[in-house]
Design goal:
Elements (H helix, E strand, L loop, with lengths): L1 E7 L5 H21 L1 H28 L1 E10 L3 E7 L15 H10 L5 H6 L3 E7 L3 E3 L3 H5 L10 H12 L4 E8 L9 H8 L3 E5 L12 E6 L5 E3 L4 E10 L6 H4 E8 L2 E9 L5 E9 L5 E9 L12 E9 L3 E7 L4 H11 L4 E8 L5 E5 L22 E4 L9 H12 L3 E5 L21 E2 L7 E6 L2 E2 L1 H5 L8 H4 L7 E5 L3 E2 L4 E11 L2 E11 L2 E6 L5 H8 L7 H12 L13 E5 L3 E2 L5 E7 L11 E15 L5 E13 L6 E6 L5 E11 L2 E12 L13 H11 L4 E2 L6 H7 L3 E9 L4 H20 L4
Parallel strand pairs: 3-4, 3-6, 6-7, 7-37, 9-15, 16-17, 16-19, 19-20, 20-28, 30-36
Antiparallel strand pairs: 1-2, 2-38, 4-5, 8-10, 10-13, 11-12, 11-14, 14-15, 17-18, 21-25, 22-24, 23-26, 26-27, 27-28, 29-31, 31-34, 32-33, 32-35, 33-34, 35-36
Amino acid sequence: MKSWEIAFTGSWPAALVLPLVVGAVLLAWRFYSRRRDEVGRAGFRWMVALRMVAICIVALFLLEPVLRLTRAEATRSTVVVLVDTSRSMSIRDAAAEQSRLEAARSLLAGTPADLLRRLRAAHDVRLYRFDAVTAELAGRADLESLESDGPATALGDALRDVVREVGRDAISAVVLLTDGVSNLGDEPGAVARRMDVPIFPVALGGQLGERGRFHDVGFSAVPRNPRFIVNNRALVRLELSHVGLADFTEPERRVTVTLREDGRELASRSLLLPAHDGTTEVELEYTPDRVGVRRLRAEVSEVPAETVLENNTRSFTVHVTDPRIRLLIVEGTVRNEHRFLRRVLESDPNIEATGVVKLSGRRYLVQGVQPGVDLSRGLPARPEDYEEFDVVILGDIGRNEFTGVQLEQLRDFVDGGGGLMALGGHRAFGAGRWEDSALAGLLPVSLGGVRDGHLEDEFAPVMTPEGARHPVLLGCGRFFEEPQARVTLEGANRLRGLKPGAAALLVHPHERADGAPMPVLAAQAYGSGRVLALAADTTWRWKFQVEATGRESPYYRLWRQSVRWLAGRDEPRTAPDRLVSAWSERVEYEPGEAATLRARVRADDGEPLEGARVRAVVRYPVPVRRQTPEGEEELEQEAEVPLTAVPLSPGEYRAAWEPPAAGLYRAQVRAAADGQELGSDEVEFVLGHVASEFDRVDVDRELLQSLAATGGGVYHTQATAARIPDELEQRRRLVLRREEYDLWNAPWFLAAFVACVTAEWVLRKRRGLS
């Protein structure tokens, strides 16, 4: 569209110039009218005309006229095309039995729609693919090679990324080909409101209710953050969704649900699904046989002509733990050994400690966890009451405080798999007349009687070769070997010797019994249970003896490892030949919460290794955009997280790290010392809910319609998408372009003025006018 106009751009106003022109013309007319007889009629007309033209040219010089040309032109704006390549786009429910991605390719490059060619005729087109991340495509070749293999759909992130890369002002529209199922990143509606760019969504796929031939069975829910106890029955609840089975026979509606770990079948169940659409809960039972974070996989067999097979399997993570150790401590008096022992054990989250202290007469005070059984006589009154405990510790208390039946029940408890530890004291062992009790046969040491007495002198116990290998003293060797770290005890109960089959872990440096060093700490198995005997009652001093020098004390390790050994929980997390074991404190974390990774590192001799360099390489569930120090953005697939030593825990390392995106994380933890690799272990944990691409298979029409309405775009289906180029053509921006041509400053304009004045002068001379 074109338009022409003449404008006056001079500084002289037309209201002033016009009267001057009229006045000048009148003066010229009057001047030549007086000499009409002299110049003749023709000469009069020519000279008046030439003078009037010259006056008008002068007037035009004053007004400075220009000729303006205005043209309205349509510009080539940028149209962004976004193609969803997540796994849900592999579902074959589009027109002509195409997958959703195939339908997108057909719309963009196939006939009759051929959107890319038609859009490029009037616009600059930027083509992108997106799933968990967004990437630009070079052209049709890249489009043909696209696969629907993205682990998640970050629709909001894709809109945000293209606006950031192309520029909001440069984009005239976004054409979005997707099923609208967004399960990662920013909320698409919020991003659309911020970007303020017209969005033209093309919904690929359909709704279940509209598909007469759609048949599907899949997992709609799996357990979140379950915690199971090793060697105990675990109940796994799964939820199955089923659609389009109304015309199926009963055999066709029967499916098998299987639970697996590393390909090994854990449980399986046959299930008859109802004919109506809906969900059905199924429960599977199995017994976990290993402690740690385990990755399980649920599978359901397919039904005939099933449309979507990808949701027939779902993986999830479970945390298998030992049950908390239930401990009973029975003391005859409140003493330092008892006070500090309770503090140590109650601070351990894996131990439930109940303390019973004799007050006076036959009165006992119950402290800590209340087990719900009768402890009014110190020890449980009934055999079944021992089911509430895993370990019993007898402190400084005499044999005469208990009945023979109580001690026989305690012996049966140990024989059946319980743990027992006897501590030293003035009323313990022989001094407490335990030599003829039902418990004398359980103990790993031989007792005399009240005449055995006590050793009162301070001494430094010596670790035996058996003690160096025993789980009770794991990591404590240097405290009994290095002079600067050696710990001491203030006396001990005198013992008669070590029983056959028992192991002396610590012995007295000078005192001998039965021809060998007198045992101070001894261990043995009894029936299915385990027994420890500690002939001293001043281990609490170890806490202060070592910590006062700025070193770590063996006190905590001794007691925690003793209780775990007695309860049968001393098995390592990994195989004995592995030096590095790692785990996550929890299986699942909430968004914004830091994940805690832990590792235990041992030297070749089995001792905890301090000073190791421990690193975790954590692989993200999806690539994450990071900004480089140079200010550029790049995609990051993994992060390296250093683990630091845990105070007072030799060989243990820890790191708290905040994961950047929701999903399943896999970390490989490596340890090295003195430039030598020690080994590695793998850890899995989850941030938030790990959404599957097939949790929802319906196209999200509501979301896509909302995106179109927010930015002023138009919602389309596969059938109507061919209209998009025409709709964008109607919205193309018109740019007005103006061109100006100076009339007053043109050479011919000046020439005309000179010609008029010269011609008039020549005529005047010829007529004899001055």
